[in-house]
Protein: Methylenetetrahydrofolate--tRNA-(uracil-5-)-methyltransferase TrmFO
Organism: Roseobacter fucihabitans
Amino acid sequence: MILMTQILHVIGGGMAGSEAAWQAANLGVRVVIHEMRPKVGTFAHQTGLLGEMVCSNSFRSDDDEQNAVGLLHWEMRQANGLIMQIADKHRLPAGGALAVDRNPFAQSVTDALMAHPNISVEYGEITELPEDGQWIIATGPLTSSALGQAIAAETGAEALAFFDAIAPIVYFDSIDMSQAWMQSRYDKGETEEERTAYLNCPMDRDQYEAFIDALMAADKTEFHEGETAGYFDGCLPIEVMAERGRETLRFGPMKPVGLTNPHQPDVKPHAVVQLRRDNKLGTLYNIVGFQTKMKYGAQAEVFKSIPGLENASFARLGGIHRNTFLNSPTLLDQQMRLRSKPSIRFAGQITGVEGYVESAAMGLLAGRLAASEILGAALDTPPANTATGALITHISGGAEAKTFQPMNVNFGLFPPVEGFKGGRRGRKDRYKAYTDRAKSAWHAWLKAEALDAA
Ligand SMILES: Cc1cc2nc3c(=O)[nH]c(=O)nc-3n(C[C@H](O)[C@H](O)[C@H](O)COP(=O)(O)OP(=O)(O)OC[C@H]3O[C@@H](n4cnc5c(N)ncnc54)[C@H](O)[C@@H]3O)c2cc1C
């Protein structure tokens, strides 16, 4: 039955909420956006405009052949995405990146949404989880505390985080396995897979001492004003641990006990850096316990001094930020619905993606999925070999739920393409193959959607 009168409510008019509303409205559904600003502010937003960029003015690389975020731009443009349309209109010169003039950008997003005949905007904070109707919650990393508490009451407190503590993530095929090896501490585990679940990088005394010096000397970022540190002993930045004593890391995340280096079985490593698989595909590994406030340039330099990681490519670097996000792999289904309350979808950074572009893409998808459900036309999520599909597949089950932390789009989330060389040398051809494959799959998905709706 088609309930044309059913309204879609979107909470939050940021990157994700604005795009979700636009997509659903263009499919013929009436949408109400509930935005708390300017009545209630956040420490990072400056205006009452929809689609405000809270910090940098960059949508990152616009290269849709060699870069996963550029591919996400391309997919959103093909799907008539509002955020991309307006970003293109207010583009500033920035080499291969897509930088925008932030205030005219947010003003244009606001104007376009206000002018849409199917969209209205209600200003005010939503403090409770809705009971009736179709909803998308896109309240972002700075979700107001009342709504955050209401969400936590539904999901369980441990399934909603208020800080991310991101350890750097490395592409497996960039790790030098002639130095590193696979082994769980004390060979623990019932199966061979469990006994070899960790990837280990050994250090001798000199390497460890030089590593501690580099950590302490590295440039660090400060917390934003109003973003209280509030980190607790379980997720201290490694440089803070190092400052507490030069041996702290050797008795913490870098302890060498219970591990034997098969490349040098007679030499006991002085310290060991452990990496743990980050996705089911096994293409990404995170460096265990290495959350950090070091600046990105410094991180790359310091982490490449770890034996085995000299040529590491990072899918993302580490960080600690104020960030409200769900444990989506356990809470959301592939349609972005809350399993326990399927009339509520989540979109944007709160789902555990990271960045303006990824958040807008998750808004685009949630808007289309919600509108299709309202219109009675079932819509499948896009396949994992598209950038949008790779993200939704990762957050709704591809990621390891126990260690789930927010993720940027990257080629490590895509099913591998066969027949291409791994490592740096084959990278150009491999990335082109990823983006070619994604583009035809995205077109097919858009076409199937249009047929379903017809
Ligand atoms: C300090 C900071 C700096 C960042 N810097 C960058 C950066 O440089 N580049 C980058 O790509 N990403 C950055 N991010 C991540 C960034 O927030 C996301 O990329 C993007 O803004 C997320 O989009 P979103 O739509 O999920 O959330 P937002 O864009 O934050 O939108 C959420 C909206 O929901 C509203 N809202 C919240 N609670 C309620 C409520 N209860 N009722 C009604 N409305 C509500 C908010 O006012 C806001 O408008 C940063 C995040 C923070 C916190």
